[in-house]
């Protein structure tokens, strides 16, 4: 990974972007893609789009990832000055106690800690905590002091960002799905470098973690011929991974191509052929019900849009210490660029019935 792309990735990871509050992260993304796109824009909810215009008779394809991350929101402030959080997306209360957090208030960040009763004082019954059991200590003496600094509706993120465990292994908060928006941008850059005949959109969507709302909006507006959505998927190559849910997906073994349900069979084959042509090894994943990604919104946004999920293997999803191998990111980006460069060879991605 060259230094510019590496800096772009870490800038994304350092910028808090909880669902519904993605503006800061979208600015980082737009600044990067503007250097090589023909045009960039946003819609009214903050979905960000960059485009490389192709030939008039060539198809249009979307390469996309979602900008938002899970987090919390200020639900209430009690009279003792403790902030009571609510959930943004699938935030996990079991890994949130004892964490430093940042409340993104109107006047600037407010630091706090998620309280936890000391082990000496509690009788653990084995029950997992719920978000309603959590409280955040911002150091306030009472409710009025806390309310002077934070307000109901302010978003909250875990304060950690990222760390390089090795030259290739990256861990941190919000990897789901900064790696998707990074690969969409890098896929567009590679398509531009390859002079792709197709019109290629890179999209950074909002609000995936709360129902794939951004994809519904922008998918209808763009009306593309095909969509490749990049997200993370569970890599279960670690001790104590649940055996009944074990898959063949491993960190460092390359892009994961999903098959079944949302994933369009013609587009899936096109992506696999692009990977083979580019000498990229892929992992396969079964998806018999739905993908749980933006692809589920794109493919029904306008009467049926061929859509495909390509995933980055990710350990410890929805925790502050998600882990990926950057070689997987680079190969996903290369796969997106290769697919976009070959997309003009397809008159249609429709199934032959």
UniProtKB/TrEMBL annotation:
InterPro entries: Peptidase_M42, Peptidase_M42_aminopept, Peptidase_M42_dom2. GO terms for biological process: proteolysis. GO terms for molecular function: aminopeptidase activity; metal ion binding. Zn(2+) 2 binds at residues 176, 209, 318. SUPFAM superfamilies: Aminopeptidase/glucanase lid domain (SSF101821), Zn-dependent exopeptidases (SSF53187). Binds 2 divalent metal cations per subunit. It comes from the Archaea. It holds the Pfam family Peptidase_M42. Its cofactor is a divalent metal cation. The keyword Protein biosynthesis does not apply. Keywords: Aminopeptidase, Hydrolase, Metal-binding, Protease. Zn(2+) 1 binds at residues 66, 176, 231. The active site is at residue 208. Belongs to the peptidase M42 family. This is M20/M25/M40 family metallo-hydrolase.
């Amino acid at each position: 990974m060259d230094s510019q792309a590496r800096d772009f990735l870490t800038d994304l990871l350092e910028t808090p972007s909880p669902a519904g509050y993605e503006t800061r992260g979208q600015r980082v993304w737009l600044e990067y893609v503007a250097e090589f796109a023909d045009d960039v824009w946003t819609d009214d909810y903050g979905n960000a789009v960059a485009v490389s215009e192709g030939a008039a008779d060539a198809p249009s394809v979307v390469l996309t990832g979602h900008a938002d991350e899970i987090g919390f929101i200020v639900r209430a402030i009690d009279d003792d000055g403790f902030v009571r959080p609510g959930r943004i997306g699938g935030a996990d209360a079991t890994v949130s106690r004892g964490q430093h957090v940042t409340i993104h208030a109107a006047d600037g960040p407010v630091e706090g800690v998620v309280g936890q009763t000391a082990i000496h004082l509690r009788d653990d019954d084995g029950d997992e905590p719920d978000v309603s059991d959590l409280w955040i200590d911002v150091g306030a003496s009472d409710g009025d002091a806390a309310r002077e600094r934070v307000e109901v509706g302010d978003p909250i993120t875990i304060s950690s960002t990222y760390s390089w465990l090795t030259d290739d292994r990256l861990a941190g908060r919000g990897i789901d799905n900064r790696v998707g928006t990074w690969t969409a941008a890098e896929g567009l850059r590679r398509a531009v470098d390859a002079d792709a005949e197709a019109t290629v959109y890179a999209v950074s969507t909002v609000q995936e973690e709360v129902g794939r709302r951004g994809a519904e909006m922008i998918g209808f507006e763009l009306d593309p011929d095909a969509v490749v959505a990049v997200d993370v998927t569970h890599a279960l190559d670690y001790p104590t991974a649940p055996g009944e849910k074990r898959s063949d997906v491993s960190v460092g073994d390359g892009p994961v191509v999903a098959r079944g349900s949302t994933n369009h069979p013609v587009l899936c084959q096109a992506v696999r052929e692009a990977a083979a042509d580019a000498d990229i090894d892929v992992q396969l994943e079964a998806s018999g019900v739905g993908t749980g990604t933006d692809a589920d919104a794109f493919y029904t946004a306008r009467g049926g849009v061929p859509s495909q999920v390509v995933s980055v293997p990710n350990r410890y999803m929805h925790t502050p210490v998600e882990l990926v191998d950057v070689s997987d990111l680079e190969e996903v980006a290369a796969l997106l660029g290769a697919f976009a460069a070959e997309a003009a060879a397809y008159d249609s991605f429709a199934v032959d019935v």
